[in-house]
Amino acid sequence: MKKLLVIVRWLVGLLFIFSGLVKANDPLGLSYKIQEFFDVWGWSHLHAYTLGLAMTLNVFEIVAGVAVIVGCQKKLVNWLLFLLIIAFTFLTGYALFSGKIKTCGCFGDCIPLSSAQSFMKDLILFVLILFLIVANDKNIKSVFNLRSMLLVLISLIGSIGLQFYVLKYLPVVDCLPYKIGNNLQQQMQLPAGAIPDSFAMHFIYQKSGKEISFDQQHFPDDFDSSYIYISRKDELVKKGNGLKAAISDFSLRTETDADTTALLFELPKYLMLLAKDFDDYKDWEPALKNIIEYSAKYKIPIVFITADAKTASEKIQNIPVLKCDATVLKTAARVTPTIFFMEGANIRKKFSYRSIASIESAIRNW
User: Fold this and answer.
1) Residue span of the structural domain in which 216 resides
2) What pLDDT digit, counting tens, does each position of 262-277 carry?
3) What is the dihedral sign for C-alpha 252, 256, 259, 265?
4) H-type helices in the chain, by residue range?
5) pTM for this one?
6) How far is Cα 271 from Cα 341, in angstroms, rounded to an integer?
7) CA-to-CA distance for 283 and 76, rounded, in angstroms?
8) In terms of domains, do 146 and 282 share one?
9) Taking all residues of the chain, what is their mean pLDDT, rounded to a whole number?
10) C-beta of residue 288 within 8 angstroms of C-beta of residue 209
11) Cα–Cα distance between 112 and 162 in angstroms, integer?
């Protein structure tokens, strides 16, 4: 029994440490996933608190994992983990059985799990943690109380520090499709064997005060301007096999809504500055000006990409501004702004605006 308890403690502890570290590498990713749940439940007004919640959860997973392994505060930690796994099991079960959430984000973007896989993982952890509580592990003492407390304290400080670092300077390990070395055009292509979902479009029009519904194959013979468009509904006819392009919605447009994505990818060498909004513009304005001046000095083309093109045109002069969907920019640029060093569609380097010395060095030696 004693050996089994040790094995279970290490297994539970390592799983929580690993899960916490993977998500602490990109706390914004977990924050966006929490927002997805909140949107489904009608709690969108709580979006402002999701980053703090995500960071707290990550810290707790790491610290509790270490505490389980070293045997620190066994009873308290086991019960806290039990409450946490109940919450996680509910969330993954909701994602699986409701079908409203595709993935739970349990291991972040680095190890994507299906809803079913996440639910099974949590059920197994539920059983293991329950075993630790029932067994009451009285015969296994902490490894020198001072040493165990020191390890817990180090994990606490380290997990907090890691998250603040990546929020300022981008994730240490980039698991997103916009990572260094990727070709954006290739990431936008469907994988071999992909079968997309098939939809039937049903149009709803009004004619002579009556609503009329028809699909694209059965337009009325007398269809003319007397038909007033009301709405359109898409009905899933045949589900695909779930294989999708890693990037499905990356589109860069001018203020006149002309798609310039392909044209931009033809440039041999250029910088993309990605900024979803201008909420903290005063913080990064000096760095932005330095980057623009430095790129001009070394004749490196530069383009500013944002979801708020109107504000960008007012604040930024002498460089092109392109529009992009805000959700895309939340994924591509975890720091606002993020600077991409591009060769065609290939991402060669990627920096937070705070790494100004590294950016200038990279421009100079490019």
Assistant:
1) 198-238
2) 999 999 999 999 999 9
3) negative
4) 2-24, 27-41, 50-70, 74-98, 115-135, 145-169, 184-187, 261-265, 281-297, 309-315, 326-332, 356-364
5) 0.83
6) 5
7) 42
8) no
9) 90
10) no
11) 21
